[in-house]
Amino acid sequence: MPVSTPEPPSPAQLFLIFARIGLTSFGGGLSGWLLREFVQQRKLMSEEDFLNGLSIAQALPGVNVTNMAIWIGYRLGGRNGAIASWLGIVVPAALLIVLISTAFSALAGFALTHVALAGAACAAIGLSLSMGLTAARRVPRRAFPLAIMAATFVAVAILQWPLIWTVLVAGSLSVAVSYSRG
Length: 182
What we know:
Keywords: Cell membrane, Membrane, Transmembrane, Transmembrane helix. It is found in: Cell membrane. This protein is mainly α and about 180 residues long. The chain folds into 2 domains: about 10-140, no CATH class; about 140-180. The protein has 7 helices and no strands. Helix 2 (about 30-40) crosses helix 5 and helix 3 packs across helix 4 (about 65-105).
């Protein structure tokens, strides 16, 4: 019996999915939400496709989650899907940020406000760590990809070299070697 693939969402559905994600999550954990939504729950793409898209989104200039929304939208709905996904992840969240910043200005003097923000930051870090571990699990267990991963970590986190140059050099080297291996 053949396995049926789910019907891709319409541009309006993509807008609503990304609006919900953008309004209910924040910080570095958005990639984790996208992984759960499109790979694990809706099964609209494979984990490998998602991680490939995440790599592209992180390599491009701009906000990773916005790049990822455009990439997912395009993959699932073409140009209209990309536009709808971009609008969904940006516009509702931007409006909410304006409202929250107005409220925060009024509540900044209360200690509970700072405690709540610290707790939210911890949750976002946990989601980012989860996404990083998922991606690291998928790195081929060969010496070269692991060396590139380790060298990038050392260069950015420990030596504090500029991210742009580290990504350009390590990324170019990694792409060239992967390409030459076929």
